Amino acid sequence: MRNGFSDWLPLTSGVPQGSLLGPLLFLVYVNDIAKSINNSKVFSYAHDTALYFSSNNKNDLISKVKTDLTQLIENLNSLSLKVNVSKTKLLLISNCNANDFPDVKIGKETLEPVNEADYLGVTIDKGLNFKSQMQKVINRMAFANSTISHISKFINKSTKALLCNALVNSQLYCSTVWQYCTDRTLYKRFLRQQNWSLRIIENRQNRQSVQDLKTNGNYIPFEVSLDVNSVKFIHKLFMLNEYQSYNLQLALRQKDILSIQLQNCRIDSFRSSIQHRGAMIWNSLDPPIRKIKSPRIFKVKAREFLLRKYILNSKSIWCTRCI
Fold this sequence. Notes:
By secondary structure, the chain is mainly α. The protein is 48% helix and 10% strand. It has helices spanning 22-30, 58-78, 131-151, 157-167, 175-178, 184-202, 211-214, 222-239, 268-271, 274-284, 287-290, 295-322, and strands at 41-45, 48-52, 90-91, 104-106, 109-111, 113-114, 116-119, 122-125, 250-251, 259-260. The strands form five sheets. It has a two-stranded antiparallel ribbon. The chain has a two-stranded parallel ribbon with strand order 3-6. The longest helix has 28 residues, at 295-322.
């Protein structure tokens, strides 16, 4: 500063904040925190770490949680790191009452069971119905639409489209996880947010239909975007040969190799899941599209196919109503 330089000081721990190598060095440093943890799956992203336990027996589950938490704390202590207990949540994904679950402690502090927890921008609830996540997405979209609407008189059409794409459409982040919310009322409210955006862009009045805009090919309907995200995820599993680990059973047929054998479903939550609905959308794609190896080309072709299918279905419904 002002042609002056600070003195060099030794760095005994940590990494310089704001440096280019800082994130990489941090990841290398904490890469071994899952070492010796055998009872759970460990998911880490930067400084966020989640431990996933699974068991049919409550006592066995408690034993696994306590054993792996103790080992994790020991690993962190060896790296001179500490667990932020105030940000650590215990989420029990089960039909059982969380109050029946024994106390889990980190040191002297007890982790209080919660009904939902945020992880990497997604709210996960104990019933995995993602109602809270869907509600948060709707609220963020509504706030963005309201803000753009207030300034729409002072900006042109291309700017409004750019803002809607950046502030509204971007909320589809990680939709493969939460889009199969079983609450149809929330889902309809979610779809209405795009209608609001289209009215803002095209200067249409409230409650004026925008279905013609969704079927003219200039805008991608949310329904199509969600389906594209689903088949992109399944395509990635096929390309990585990981479909079996996600219970996406492969039906080996001579004419149609990349097809998913649909499983019998008796409950609405499974019928709406990616294992069933996502598989149905995947199977509806033309075989040549499913065989494309390039993720980028697959996304383009799948979006074109699903958009044409959406437009044809919309026109069929409209013609039926006219009759």
